[in-house]
Amino acid sequence: MKYTDIHSHIIPYIDDGADDIETSIEMAEIAVSEGIESIVCTPHAISGYDELISEANEQREELQRRLDFRGIPLRLYQGFEVYVGEAFLDYEYPERLAMNGGTHILIETDFERIPACMEEVLYLLRITGLTPILAHPERYLYLKKDIAACEVWKSGGMLFQINAGSLTGQYGGTAQKTARKLLKKGYADFIGTDAHSAGRRAPLIKGGLAECGKRFGQSMVSRLLENNKSLTE
């Protein structure tokens, strides 16, 4: 079975992900060995959006050329992991940060507290016609303590992406339990690797899918993977 990864920092030279293009290529080889056939590249977007978009597209296209030249069967699509902050509220073209030029946008927040501007950002996304996907909710301290906010956001149309590594315990026991709780409640919509390197944070997905299937059944795995794939179609 082939998979789509919707959260990856595989593009080099952009953020805290791949340090160089050789690391990116190594990450691509690992991803392919895991059964991943396509990746939505999601470098962190905190400010300076137009410059970031231009640089990210340039680096992604160069990486795709290198992968094609080496015969590595992996397709790359553009997206961003957008930080919920005041800078985003001032940006005129939030649709430019959408995943694969579509209607979904991957967002992240501060790890310790809900941003003061969260509701303003969600309103901006709604009137722009964008559906937010919250990256790795199981890793945020404020949701580990109480996932009640997820219920409110879910009813407002927000979607959630859990990390495969969270299900295998990579981010600790509490994140693992929260990820399981999100799956049990039916809140989790997507799964991603959140890969940053070819080492400790490599693009590994099979282990997380296996844990998901063991606890919640293959139908849950299939739903997550189908949702992932829909973002590149």
Automatic annotation (TrEMBL):
Keywords: Hydrolase, Protein phosphatase. SUPFAM superfamilies: PHP domain-like. It comes from the Bacteria. Gene3D superfamilies: Metal-dependent hydrolases. It catalyses: O-phospho-L-tyrosyl-[protein] + H2O = L-tyrosyl-[protein] + phosphate. Its EC number is 3.1.3.48. InterPro entries: Caps_polysacc_synth_CpsB/CapC, Pol/histidinol_Pase-like. GO terms for molecular function: manganese ion binding; protein tyrosine phosphatase activity. Belongs to the metallo-dependent hydrolases superfamily. CpsB/CapC family. This is protein-tyrosine-phosphatase. It comes from Christensenella minuta.
